[in-house]
Amino acid sequence: MDFIKKASGSGSGTANQQPAGGAPQQDYGDKAANMLDKKYNGGKLGEAKLEKITDGLRTGYEKATGNKVNPKISN
Asked: From start to end residue, where is composition biased (Low complexity) (predicted)?
């Protein structure tokens, strides 16, 4: 029965998948970056640039500490 849930998209394994419509799912890191961009920069950077920034921050953190970032915070 689990394979039916996974095939239909309704199961516990859908945390990192994109929702319908093709928009990527935002984690807390992305949401925080968007909020700061809108507040201090007027929203000029755009989502693609902010995604690169948050990915770079996550990679830097993981290299410096050796610990993985919780996927809920940044995936």
From this structure: 17-26
